[in-house]
TrEMBL record:
PANTHER family per the UniProt record, alphabetical: CYTOCHROME P450 YJIB-RELATED, P450, PUTATIVE (EUROFUNG)-RELATED
Key words, A-Z: Heme, Iron, Metal-binding, Monooxygenase, Oxidoreductase
MF term (GO), any: monooxygenase activity
Homology family: Belongs to the cytochrome P450 family.
Superkingdom assignment: Bacteria
The name this protein goes by in its record: Cytochrome P450
Organism: Polyangium jinanense
Length: 409
């Protein structure tokens, strides 16, 4: 690609002011040019809605081709469990295998299928809230939104309660391994909990094969079958790992951003209090209005092609800045308005087509219950200080999110 034909993208995603509010900068980029070249990422970055959506639908873009090549032999030798886990990951398998896995898995993760888990999700979330004071300051990020997603996944998989700490350690270590630039010693420290977690999941798979359970996600996954084709044990273990990584962060960060957006738009918070059924819609509107990323979303060219007068080579990354796209006035004339009553025609922030987020329905249900339960317990909530933004290189995380709450009307 001729990088001289498009302007270079220059910005600091780690700038504290960007973490707090990236949208003025993104609007300037979007207005000045439709596409930039991002030297750090090694590919073009598209900012406008029509381009981003077209690229998300483009079959010539897929996962990073280097991932499908497998792990180096030295890594396999040093960390065989982790290598096996990742080589069966939905994000690493070839497109044909990906299509097969999605065909088997989709029925277990549809909106109706996940509704059976609502009582468990509600019990976990309300159990956390019961530990909070009726009056005072709570850190909603570390003590609430960070806590329930992993416990929900453990519950719907019916992980035995005595193994929950081990399962949570497995999740935390897995999430750490996806941080770009993780020092080798920190990566190595994550491996023992990962190996123990994988062994635990294998034990539970074996037990559940012998003793199936009703309304149990693990049993449903074990029984998932299409023309006698079933998930293998390595695929099942890898799927659980993928749920822990993807299902935890989206819900955690998305719920934080929803609460922050509601507090920054008090008229919308008042609407939600009056109509709690809008909680899921509030979560969707927040993912459109205030996504939690720092950097654009990548896909990789499976063949060379030209798009919007930009030549893209096979294997090259193509970036879509969805945070910009969903604030594009060509998408919504009032895109900068936060409106939890907005009727969305889709949930593109969860992906499109074969790359649509597998756990989207579960994440939306969790966020819905988390928002409804928090607001029901506390008729009064307000910021008790500015959120403390973390230094995660990919996501705008809130290390601290202090709220002053009161159970008195």
């Amino acid at each position: 690609m001729m990088t001289t034909t498009i302007p270079p993208l220059r910005y600091d995603p780690m700038d504290p002011s960007y973490a707090k509010d990236p949208y003025p900068l993104l609007a300037r980029f979007r207005e000045e040019a439709p596409v930039y070249y991002w030297e750090q990422g090694g590919g073009p970055v598209f900012f406008r809605y029509k381009d981003c959506i077209a690229l998300m639908r483009d079959a010539r873009l897929g996962h990073d081709p280097t991932l499908g090549a497998g792990f180096p032999q030295e890594l396999k030798a040093a960390y065989p469990d982790f290598a096996t886990l990742r080589e069966n990951d939905l994000f690493m398998v070839p497109s044909e295998a990906h299509a097969r896995l999605r065909r088997l898995l989709n029925p277990a993760f549809g909106p109706r299928a996940v509704e059976v888990h609502r009582p468990k999700v509600k019990a976990i979330i309300e159990g956390l809230l019961e530990k909070f004071p009726l009056e005072g300051v709570i850190d909603v990020s570390s003590d609430y939104t960070r806590q329930y997603p992993v416990r929900v996944i453990a519950s719907v998989l019916n992980i035995p309660p005595n193994h929950e700490p081990e399962f949570i350690a497995f999740a935390e270590s897995l999430i750490s391994t996806i941080i770009p630039g993780l020092p080798p010693e920190r990566f190595a420290a994550c491996m023992p909990p990962v190996s123990r977690g994988m062994a635990l999941v294998r034990e539970i798979i074996a037990d559940r094969r012998a003793h199936p359970m009703e309304d149990d996600l693990m049993t449903q996954l074990i029984n998932a079958c299409d023309e006698q084709d079933r998930l293998s044990d390595p695929e099942l273990v890898s799927l659980v790992a993928g749920l822990l990584v993807g299902g935890t962060d989206t819900t955690y960060h998305g719920t934080n951003q929803t609460l922050l957006s509601l507090l920054q738009n008090p008229e919308q918070l008042a609407i939600l209090r009056a109509e709690p059924s809008l909680a899921r819609n509030a979560f969707d509107e927040t993912l459109r209005y205030n996504m939690f990323g720092r950097v654009p979303f990548p896909r990789y060219a499976t063949e060379s092609f030209e798009f919007a007068n930009v030549s893209i080579k096979r294997g090259q990354p193509v970036f879509m800045f969805l945070m910009s796209a969903f604030r594009d006035p060509e998408y919504l004339p009032d895109a900068n308005v936060y409106d939890i009553r907005r009727q969305h025609t889709g949930t593109h922030w969860f992906g499109l087509g074969p790359h649509f987020c597998l756990g989207a329905s579960l994440a939306r249900m969790e966020a819905e219950i988390a928002l409804q339960s928090l607001l029901a317990r506390y008729p009064k909530i307000e910021l008790a200080g500015e959120p403390v933004w973390g230094k995660h290189p990919i996501m705008r995380t809130m290390d601290k999110f202090p709220l002053r709450v009161s159970a008195s009307a």
